[in-house]
Amino acid sequence: MTLQEFLQNFANGISLGSLYALIAIGYTMVYGILRLINFAHGEMIMVAAYIAFYTVFIFSMPWYISFFIAIIITTIVGILVERLAYKPLRSSPRVTILISAIGVSFFLQNLGIVLFTGRPKAFQVPTLFSQVYTIKGVNIVSLTFFIPTITVVLLILLVYVINNTKIGMAMRAVAKDYDTSSLMGIDVNKIISVTFGIGSALAAIGGIMWSMKFPQLTPTMGLMPGLKCFIAAVLGGIGNITGAVVGGFILGLTEILLVAFLPDLSGYRDAFAFILLILILLVKPTGILGEKIAEKV
Amino acid sequence: MKRKIITSLIIIGIVIVILILLQNTLGNFKLRILNLAGIYVIFAVSMNLINGFTGQLALGHAGFIAVGAYTYTLLVMDSDLKSMNFFLEPIVPFLSSVHWPFLPAVIMGGLLAGLAGLLIGAPVLRLRGDYLAIATLGFGEIIRTVFTNTQSITNGSLGLKAIPMPKSFLFIEMKNAFTWWVWTAVIITVIFHFLLVSSSYGRALKAIREDEKAAEAMGVNIFKHKVWAMVISSFFAGIGGALLASLMTTIDPLMFRFTLTFNILLIVVLGGMGSISGSVISAVVVTILMEWLRFLDQGFMGLPEIPGLRMVVFSTLLLLVVLFYPRGLMGNEELSWNKITKMFQRFHMQPREVRK
Amino acid sequence: MNLLEVKGITMQFGGLKAVANFNLNIDKNEIVGLIGPNGAGKTTCFNVIAGEYVPTQGKVFFEGRDITKSRPDQITKLGIARTFQNIRLFKDLTVLENVLIANHLNLQSNIFSATFRLPWYQKEEKIMYERSLQLLDQLKLTQYKNEKASSLPYGLQRRLEIARALATQPKLLLLDEPAAGMNPQESKELMYLIQELRDKFDLTIFMIEHHMPVIMGVCQRILVLDYGVTIAEGTPKEIQSNERVIAAYLGVEHIA
Fold this sequence. Notes:
The complex is a heterotrimer.
Chain A: H1 3-34, H2 41-57, H3 63-86, H4 94-116, E1 121-122, H5 127-130, E2 132-135, E3 138-141, H6 142-164, H7 166-176, H8 178-183, H9 188-213, E4 216-217, H10 223-236, H11 241-261, H12 269-283
Antiparallel strand pairs in A: 1-4, 2-3
Helix pairs in contact in A: 1-6, 1-7, 1-9, 1-10, 1-11, 2-3, 2-4, 2-9, 2-10, 3-9, 6-7, 6-9, 7-9, 10-11, 10-12
Chain B: H1 2-25, H2 28-53, H3 61-76, H4 79-85, H5 93-96, H6 102-124, H7 129-149, H8 151-154, E1 168-169, E2 172-173, H9 177-197, H10 200-210, H11 212-217, H12 222-248, H13 258-271, H14 276-292, H15 294-298, H16 309-324, H17 337-348
Helix pairs in contact in B: 2-9, 2-12, 2-13, 2-14, 3-6, 3-7, 3-12, 6-12, 9-12, 10-12, 13-14, 13-16
Chain C: E1 4-13, E2 16-26, E3 31-35, H1 42-49, E4 57-62, E5 65-66, H2 72-78, E6 80-82, H3 95-103, H4 111-115, H5 119-138, H6 154-167, E7 172-176, H7 184-200, E8 204-208, H8 212-218, E9 221-226, E10 229-234, H9 236-241, H10 243-250
Parallel strand pairs in C: 3-8, 3-9, 6-7, 7-8
Antiparallel strand pairs in C: 1-2, 1-4, 4-5, 9-10
Helix pairs in contact in C: 3-5, 3-6, 5-6, 7-8
């Protein structure tokens, strides 16, 4: 492999990793508060992608407005999912709420098939993101720069919100101790909604960038990235936002480099993440940055 | 005990009589649905063992079913059929001349699926419940990816076609031999699970579901019991998978997507997590409904065809049940004569004060 | 030889030292109490002994055998049974089933002999039933045997937890606040019950309790824990007059 090829792959890995990171944050935040794997989180990618697609395609809006609308609607969908399908089950056994999450995920996928048909749709990538630059013989699409930059900016913003604002403090409190927080007068329901909102908004941004990177939309497009991002969150230490980002980058880079170095195994690319998951769970179930939580007896 | 055996025999007798009647009167299409319903009973009951009775949300059923289906298919096909199927890349030599009879092939399908259950269960069952869900789901996907990529063993995404159906049942040639095989498997599966969950081991599994820490404090080796539940559950999934391959006569990796696991989970939740009779009833009803509701996808009464509508209906149904009736049809109770007679008595007696 | 020997146990959770250098020897047939204010590390001690936690430092010996790193189920098999502070019954199962499950650890038959009801399993099952029914009888729970565990009133749930622990045939019984939530009359009955059980089942008992009358009434020896450190050990009389204890504990919390 030449240095050019390596750099190309590396840049690719970084941009895929940032996408994983962005989506993994939503998983980790929700898990931190509700101890729930939000199976429907991956579907937010799909929802955002299709809304962006249709607003551009049918209403021929400029891309920035259409992306903005997609993010807003996806955020609302994310909050609604929590309100309708998770909130009523908050005191039920964990298995029940997990099944509900799977149900929502399946519902959204199939609703997607009904509304948009199963036929793949080609996403129109705005020219801003599709320019090709050649740097020292390496061809790189402008999107490859945009994705990590946007991710880093959003991450800084998120960390600021969580550490320095009142709502961020409340979110940390609820994640730490749900019951006490509600006794302390924190509106737990509101905080949970905000968490789902932020997570879904990030997933929407991730989803739009995803569809620019892989411009083919199908109603089940969210499934695989969703699962992989959950794995990224576990890899980094679930419940930990920095961990999710670290996990996302590691997963993205290793996946791309694996395919680059061992092209024979490229067919197993999707299985790789799961093998990684099982390995982490065996070696360090708390993930890279996770802390051990002793269960109260 | 005696009474239980007698009731069980009566029920089995009734099932056999119904089967004789049905397989003589039903047309091919309906007979196929009857077979499919039986296979779904096997899937649902076996999934219920790990998910409902042991309380471990395992979502790898489609993977185990795939193992069973492929094992069966590769064992039961003769070399002519194999060379016909593997036209892109020849099958590996050690499989090309294997040609097993029906029953051993089905059992081998179950055994290999059980082995897969052991291999996946051993690492992940040590972990907290929700990781299990994602790891087993991932495992199902891994199996599918492997089957898609091992062209010379599974024929990859081309799948395998013209899988033979058994022509005889217990060495007797008959018209609907396959139906008899399926429903014999159903009866064995159901009885096995009934006996297992009512044994001391079954109580230990339920204890794990109720409170893992307490079960451990009572001396139950949690890990060992969970692994047993997983292995048995995947064994029966593999048996069901073998039968499914035989019924479908063609298999390919896409058949074993997560959708399959989801359908089974739906059946288990509807019937009641932790109720075998609930799973049986629900499997039969849902299978028939799924076939019947195909008109939703294919268009009816002048409406255009809407693919996916059927699954929207089913996922909505699952959500409604989980949200408003989380115990499902039977909760974790079993259908028994006592309960049925009690139900009838309730109609005749004065309303009593409800006991809390 | 002591039945239970705890040597210099320290349990650290992150920055928090829940228990520091805890030592304890219990002889056969003793009834020993462990008291201390909330958060003093009493339940942590129990969890270390029962195998729930592996201590950061120190060792636990049971009948001379090192059990520090054994799993809870292995420890139960060796003869240490426990109850939980916040009752952990198998709620959806019947009273009888709860006790039967605690018999499971002695089962010799494997899962297939059990499923196919082979004769040797049936024999074992019969013994399990007899023993369980006898236990329920001894703890006056027979009339509830087919009720769901969660439907029992609070006091009976505590008693069922004890029955369940006894069904594992322990030599040492760990009781975590058995009188919690009981009225004076009930806790008085509990006092007699504990002594009776000790004699009937040849038990050794180590208990955490907040109700002073109970602990002073039944224990031969009491340890006092405060902020993870043992501040006193002695007979109930000695403890009652120990100034450090009064300062740390009895002075702060009202004596019931």
